[in-house]
Specification:
The structure is a homotetramer of 220-residue chains. Chain A is mainly α and 220 residues long. Chain A folds into 2 domains: 43 residues, Arc Repressor Mutant, subunit A (Orthogonal Bundle); 162 residues, Tetracycline Repressor, domain 2 (Orthogonal Bundle), CATH 1.10.357.10. Chain A starts with a helix and ends in an 8-residue tail after the last helix. Chains in contact: A-B, C-D. At the C-D interface, helix 7, helix 8 and helix 9 of C face helix 7, helix 8 and helix 9 of D. Chain A binds a DNA duplex (21 and 21 nucleotides) through helix 3.
DNA sequence: GATGAATGAGTATTCATTCAT
DNA sequence: GATGAATGAATACTCATTCAT
């Protein structure tokens, strides 16, 4: 693993554990046993590191939320895929969600990338919902697709912040994020096709069980 | 106006305009034309000032969301009252919403007060929704009252952050917050009694109109 | 009791309890329930207060160490008088002994007064020792009177500091100061007339007993 | 000379010249022509610098007062060694002696180290005195060894403070410290073996001469 | 690729003292 | 006599970033 990648990985880890504001570039360097100068050889900036992390984040979003089309999209496996992806992104980049505005407003270039990714994501989500409508899994009135997409994005975007504000401990657990996944499912519940009720119940059960797990297992 | 109050007012204004993290105690003092020492004569801390602002915030919440009981709660005036209160609190303390976690996790004492206020608010909101159920204005199934309360709180709590993240300009307009009020109404829409449809439409119209207003008028 | 005197008394108490450097003029005023302005109405300075305390200190020294002359000086009561006076002055003005150099070098005027008092004290002590020589209580060779005086003064002057440095707790107990009194007696021991041995033993016993007392009684 | 060492040396010099309390970290940095940030790159704290100085102090004490055993301890050279060491430590770390209690009570960790060093020193001094007894240089009754050790330590510890209080100028001269060395010798005088009188006189003469020297030579 | 010493602007806070009322 | 609001200079410490080697 190259130094450049090790820096990104260490920064991500420390940001997630301690909050981006509390992690200095010197901390990252010390954590890796390299010199601060070396860190600045690979990255022009602290923000530059965050850009690289954001890139990973964006790639995950793109890969994970490319709409599956055709009958395959009706299978339960697809639901697990999307919901696990939501969890993964919330957990892996929780520092980003926890400090979204600080990070974005400090760096307009990153902010623009973020907005582009969000737009793209919205398009994908809408396509996805329409596909699920077509596959008779969901039944969302057309004019509600847009606001629902927005609500979903908003809940996912601020679930980490919301939960962090609920506890004196700034760190969040995986359990709390699975709760967020279950909440997303709840938002979709009114639109599930009647005969998909059992399927929904099973999914819901699955994530609620994970939300009850005290340890931090990762769904595979 | 006493110096102590002028400090609180100036701090609130500057925090809202520039973000709490970017406003130093010296900035506040300079903005008022007083010495830093004088500021520290009236407040022990920067946090002490924030505590005072939070107190104002909490008082507004308490006063504004004390549930109205009896037939009066069915009048449209009550809706205007509550929705305007939501707007007021989001606008007047937007710096707080925009930096919620930073502020809370830096000051555990404040965090405890915040959690207490939130609990109290949840109780009041639930009582309010039940009363509106009783008055046949809403028809929320009992087991949905709690999750709905949570969702409402979450949307209000992070609307400012959410909207801030959507724009390159960190400052948010009143219009955007009226949009948030309209969104709250939207969350309640499914539960409105059928014959209250017209009333709802009127309310919705009102706030959507405000959300379209480019200048910053304030509903009275 | 006049405000002026109350200020001096409060300052002395707080200085002794918490150390002069840790007691601000505002502390003193708050402790008395008066305004800082009022304190400065009565005293030009924090140093001015210390001057007043020093004056009390100097008066005690003068009164207590005026040499008793004639056969009376041979009585044990005289010894108790002098040794109790040493204890009193160490206890009552322990903040002064604990911060001697800080206080003196910050205020040359006070320093001059201090040096004058010390010179006067040295003269008195020497006269006293000579009288005790004359009364056949002590037998100090003439050329040793001066160095002995100096040693006595030095031990008394820095006993408080010395003991404070021996303990992690900056506060000193009365017991520890009685130990200092016993130490003074020890310095004189070699010069006691052989037949005064019993008397010396009794004195020594007395102060060593007090040094063992855990509570803080005051000898009268 | 490395920057780290230069900082320690400059701090020691400025502390000795102006008193520890009057020397800020910025003063030290400015005096060396380096940035305050650089100083904090090498030391976490002002206290951290003092810890480093204390370490040097402790090392000197340990090295210099390791008891010499055997007949060698009877030679005059040994006396010069010990008395010069006393002088050196009083001179080189005079700021420490001048502000002992301020420095110790502000930093409990340092205070503990200090007490440990003092205990070790007491043990060494007692061993040394016993060896000199064995070598027939001194004749100290066994039960007087402990109090004598204490007195020696106390005189050395507070000689700097004592002398500083005697003069309006807070700075102390080397001459005055040589006087302190002579005083130490005086305390031992009663216990010198009769036939060592000439030797003692020579030693005493030596340090008294240095105490009379206005310039600041250093015995080698 | 990597080191690590160096920069310097920035920030919250303290406290003896003043003065209009 | 007394109030209490106001002053302002001073201080320890941080951290993203640079650059000679």
């Amino acid at each position: 693993m190259k130094t450049k990648d090790r820096i990104v990985a260490a920064a991500l880890q420390l940001f997630n554990e301690q909050g981006e504001a509390n992690v200095t570039t010197n901390h990252i360097a010390a954590h890796l046993g390299i010199s601060p100068g070396n860190l600045y050889y690979h990255f022009r900036n602290k923000n530059d590191i965050i850009h690289r992390i954001f890139q990973q984040y964006a790639e995950h979003l793109r890969k994970s939320f490319t709409p599956v089309t055709g009958p395959a999209s009706a299978s339960p496996a697809v639901w697990f895929h999307y919901l696990d992806a939501i969890f993964y992104v919330m957990w892996e980049f929780r520092f980003f969600y926890a400090n979204l505005n600080d990070i974005l407003h400090r760096d307009p270039e990153l902010h623009k990338k973020y907005l582009a990714v969000q737009r793209e994501l919205a398009v994908n989500l809408q396509a996805l919902l329409r596909e699920l409508n077509a596959q008779q899994v969901l039944a969302i009135p057309d004019q509600e697709i847009d606001p629902l997409t927005q609500t979903l994005k908003m809940v996912v975007s601020f679930w980490v912040s919301y939960q962090s504000a609920q506890s004196l401990d700034p760190r969040i657990s995986q359990a709390v994020l699975y709760e967020g996944v279950a909440r997303v499912l709840l938002l979709l519940k009114p639109y599930f096709h009647p005969e998909k009720g059992a399927e929904l119940a099973k999914l819901s059960e699955h994530y609620q069980a994970l939300a009850r797990t005290p340890s931090d297992p990762f769904h595979k």
